């Protein structure tokens, strides 16, 4: 080789519009990324040194024998090669330049620093610890800090927007706590607040949340209606592609649950197409929706349509994409994958992922996850004659007892006539 060896960061900078690199990042396929760099003259020695792994491990990644799974390695790759964090599903990296805020559109509420900090703190804690222990804190914040500002003569559209955001968040936390009736009332209150703020995308986001809740409570017709309402709002503008993708996804889920396969698959295709083309900076006060969320929701759509092989592949993809800090989302993705393995009589695969499910943080304050674990145990029980399943069921019971002790302060009491 003549001349200087080009720096890896320089090569990556020239590949940031390359569909192969973008696809590899979206799928967290680091073996393909490493091969792209190697084919452009970066030695395996330099790649391994930059990522702080052995060359033997690097060859395993490049040959497809193993995949990068650890968050720390993804962060090392992003920082070593200057790959923007969002391409790998990571937070913005420290070296990324701060983008100037876009000028507000006419009638668009401006986010306030303190309110945004509170929203981010609640959202981050909810992702890691579940909504069970956070619900009361959000309600108190709404009552003590936001409510008085709503009736202030100097109230601005922003105050109505942040009230809508936190009321929607309280609804999600109530849902995560197993209080779906309370969740519905929060969503019902959030929508007029969003309309009063003049923020149409925020109103569309709340419609998406209402669609999700309707589906979870067994009303697919209402779920279709709210997804359609949200799409009408979202497409009226300002256009936010990730929000539109989320609404198409909710439409697909509702249509699949209603037994309408062709429209469901069409809506799912629109969601994938829309999210794949999303490039603009998203509005931070909207509920986030990313490739991992789409993969999990797609798995549920395909499961309901009895496309089990495709559903299983989407659930596996969701797990690969989802970072470990999103404990609840990762647990739900793994529970879905175990159920799909069981539907295909893949007992050993179900057991392997089942042990991963039980390794989740026992302090995760999500009644929704706890109930799905109970449902999963019921699906496993008929297979107890298989020794690995029997061992997993024993661990299930031990783990559940420990979880009930840790979550005793948030688990609702059993209804009369039921056993605890």
Automatic annotation (TrEMBL):
Gene3D superfamilies in alphabetical order: Tetratricopeptide repeat domain
Domain of life: Bacteria
Ranges in coiled-coil conformation: none
InterPro entries: Lambda_DNA-bd_dom_sf, TPR-like_helical_dom_sf
GO molecular function: DNA binding
Protein name, entry field: XRE family transcriptional regulator
Taxonomic lineage of the native organism: Bacteria, Bacillati, Actinomycetota, Actinomycetes, Kitasatosporales
């Amino acid at each position: 080789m003549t001349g200087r060896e080009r720096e890896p960061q320089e090569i990556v900078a020239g590949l940031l519009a390359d569909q192969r690199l973008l696809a590899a990042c979206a799928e967290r396929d680091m073996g393909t990324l490493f091969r792209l760099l190697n084919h452009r003259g970066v030695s395996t020695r330099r790649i391994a040194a930059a990522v702080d792994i052995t060359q033997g491990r690097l060859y395993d990644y490049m040959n497809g024998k193993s995949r990068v799974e650890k968050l720390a390695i993804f962060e090392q790759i992003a920082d070593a090669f200057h790959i923007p964090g969002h391409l790998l599903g990571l937070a913005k990296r420290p070296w990324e330049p701060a983008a100037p805020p876009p000028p507000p559109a006419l009638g668009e509420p401006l986010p306030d620093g303190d309110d945004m900090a509170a929203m981010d703190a609640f959202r981050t804690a909810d992702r890691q610890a579940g909504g069970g222990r956070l619900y009361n804190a959000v309600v108190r914040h709404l009552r003590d800090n936001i409510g008085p500002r709503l009736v202030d003569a100097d109230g601005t559209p922003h105050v109505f927007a942040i009230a809508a955001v936190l009321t929607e968040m309280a609804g999600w936390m109530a849902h995560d706590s197993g209080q779906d009736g309370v969740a519905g009332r929060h969503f019902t209150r959030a929508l007029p607040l969003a309309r009063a703020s003049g923020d149409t995308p925020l109103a569309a986001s709340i419609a998406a949340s209402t669609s999700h809740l309707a589906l979870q409570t067994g009303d697919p017709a209402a779920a279709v209606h709210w997804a359609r309402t949200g799409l009408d709002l979202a497409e009226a503008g300002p256009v936010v592609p990730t929000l539109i993708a989320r609404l198409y996804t909710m439409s697909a889920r509702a249509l699949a649950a209603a037994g309408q396969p062709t429209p469901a698959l069409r809506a799912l295709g629109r969601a994938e197409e829309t999210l794949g083309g999303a490039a603009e900076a998203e509005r931070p006060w909207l509920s986030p929706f990313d490739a991992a969320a789409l993969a999990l929701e797609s798995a549920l759509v395909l499961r309901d349509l009895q496309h089990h092989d495709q559903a299983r592949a989407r659930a596996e993809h969701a797990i690969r994409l989802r970072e470990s800090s999103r404990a609840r989302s990762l647990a739900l993705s793994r529970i879905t994958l175990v159920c799909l393995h069981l539907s295909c009589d893949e007992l050993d695969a179900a057991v392997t992922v089942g042990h991963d499910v039980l390794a989740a943080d026992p302090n995760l304050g999500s009644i929704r996850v706890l109930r799905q674990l109970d449902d999963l145990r019921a699906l496993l029980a008929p297979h107890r004659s298989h020794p690995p399943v029997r061992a997993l069921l024993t661990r299930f019971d031990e783990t559940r007892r420990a979880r009930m002790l840790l979550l005793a302060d948030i688990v609702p009491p059993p209804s009369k006539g039921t056993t605890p």
